[in-house]
Specification:
Blueprint lengths: L5 H17 L3 E5 L5 H7 L8 E6 L3 H8 L3 H7 L4 H13 L5 E7 L14 E8 L4 E7 L5 H18 L4
Parallel strand pairs: 1-2, 1-3
Antiparallel strand pairs: 3-4, 4-5
Helix pairs in contact: 1-6
């Protein structure tokens, strides 16, 4: 029995299996998911061979201190932006032994949204030491806090798996 829905559990299992096979590690940098991505991965037996570390950086101060997100980025673009997600992923990658890092920042709701940044907006970024980088902007909508967070975990796991070298 898993803490996560079957599809998330299966996606995490595939990542642990496939990354173990090629000897690569992952790090996570999470804001709106509060550690759920790392939690989904570490739910799988054998994950210690793959998961190097996870950063839960809920505040802007944590994003700057732990991941090196630039204050100018936060002031200019906001915590929920492509630029911040990219800097979070970059920071997680280079503050770990991971070959691939994934970062998420968003507005899970029910409050906190605005016309420019509505509830359900999430920016995800994943990068690798080879220089590959992916950004995805998701507009999940005001579907409820838990649903936004779980949808973000699903998307993050897809991004991680897509960066696995062939």
């Amino acid at each position: 029995m898993s803490l996560f829905p079957a599809d998330i559990h299966s996606a995490a299992e595939a990542i642990i299996r496939d990354f173990t096979a090629v000897g690569l590690m992952i790090s996570t940098a999470e804001s709106c998911t509060g550690g759920l991505i790392a939690g989904a991965l570490t739910e799988i037996s054998g994950s210690s061979a793959v998961v190097d570390r996870g950063f839960v950086t809920y505040t802007n101060t944590a994003k700057m201190e732990l991941l090196g997100v630039q204050e100018q980025t936060l002031l200019g673009f906001g915590a929920v932006s492509e630029e911040t997600a990219r800097q979070m992923a970059h920071g997680a990658l280079f503050r770990s032994r991971a070959a691939i890092a994934v970062a998420v920042t968003g507005i899970a709701g029910p409050g906190g949204g605005s016309a420019e940044k509505p509830v359900g907006l999430v920016h995800l970024a994943a990068g690798s030491r080879t220089g590959a980088f992916i950004h995805r902007k998701m507009l999940y909508g005001d579907i409820g806090r838990s649903a936004v967070r779980l949808a973000t975990v699903r998307t993050a796991l897809e991004l991680v798996h897509s960066l696995l070298p062939a």
